[in-house]
Amino acid sequence: MIGNNATVLPLRDYRGGRRTLYFTRSELNQLLGLYSRNVARGVWRDYAIDHRDGQALFSVFRHTHENPAYTIVKTAITAAQPPEFIVLSGRQRLRVARDLRDALAFFGAKFSLVPSEAR
User: Based on the structure, what is the number of domains in the chain?
Assistant: First the structure.
């Protein structure tokens, strides 16, 4: 049984100093568009959205039970700073940009074979 001496504690007193960062609707549309194109090509099969102190993460997986193939991180050191977008493969930074579109351009890079010279 609960007594009459209950104490109400403000949640703001227990939150960390960093703010939770989210993807905007426009950013989610860009991320999910890239994801759906790669699902249609049979490259990616799953995704996850996660939040850490001062970061929002969008991870894509080739197989559900593996580590992410790529993670797109939105991060901002302070609320006054514009966010930075980082494309990671494991711990390797593949691209860093101030705009999500610029960061996602990494995935649009066209790779082509260069024929070797005949000897």
Answer: 1
